[in-house]
Amino acid sequence: MTPENHTGQERSVWYFRPIILFATAYIINLALHESAHALTAYALNVPFTLYHFAVDLRGQGSVTARMAITLAGPLCSLVLGLVCWLAYRRAKASRIELLLLYLATIGVGTFFGNFIFVGDLGRIGVMLHLPIAARYAATLVGLLAVCGVHFAAGWELRGLAPAGSSRSRALLVLVVLAPIGGIAIVTLASLPMPSTLVLGRLGEVSFWIVAAIGLLISRRVPAGENRTLRIGWADAIGLAAALIVTRLMAAGISFQQ
Question: Distance between CA atoms of 193 and 138, rounded to whole angstroms?
């Protein structure tokens, strides 16, 4: 195979792996986030049914218990994101580098995204009877933080593109196709689900516009490690396992007192 053909093959292969890794990272965060709600409810002896997109509390419990259950999900996402970010910083040129970066972005982004009115942390503001001005301020801080997280992700993603890849190609694959394709896979695997949540997931894609800006002005140099581009068995198994977990949770996992 000539060098030109080899390069062309690599550039066609790496279009698919980011989509698979993004979908896997999204499901991992979502499953752990909702499971944290459920495990906290279990620990507080509050009946619930765990789904792949929410936890339905059968017994409301005290305000303190509801706050603890509500807070558990975002905190779990934050811890996951921070741990994966630290692991990403140590995983240079490894096969899991891109997965870790997506996990870090989605995890930390989910935490700050929950500051908005309809998010978990926004609901805690309602439970605490915070003034509407404080809730608006929290929403603004959350949105700005999510934008900052995605900008940083875009900056880093430029360095994960193959050597010789243009910024436009890196943007298309890592910032456009990966989130759109990944969230599409997760949404299809999650059906049926409320239409409002489907629209919410589509709205999440808009934050990757900020990541696109980060990538376009990034000074990172593509590493060009070809071994990280091809889809491996671990990638396929990871996505398959994540999809199976999604379908199991879709049936509902209940706990009764």
Answer: 28
CB 173 within 8 A of CB 14: yes
Q: What is the pLDDT of residues 184-216, one digit of tens each?
A: 999 999 888 888 787 888 888 999 999 999 999
Positive/negative CA dihedral, 105, 27, 241, 191: negative
pTM higher than the cut 0.90: yes
Torsion angle defined by CA atoms of residues 34, 38, 40 and 42, in that order, rounded to the nearest 10 degrees? -170
Name every residue whose Cβ is closer than 8 Å to that of residue 41 and which is 6 or more positions away in sequence. 47, 48, 55, 57, 61, 65, 69, 255
Residue 193 confidence (pLDDT): 81
Report domain extents, the chain: 3-32+77-232
Task: Please state, as a whole number, how many other Cβ atoms lie within 10 Å of the Cβ of residue 233.
Answer: 7
Which tokens is 192 given? 């049926």
* Cβ-proximal residues to 97 (8 Å cutoff; 6+ apart), any chain: 88, 91, 160, 228
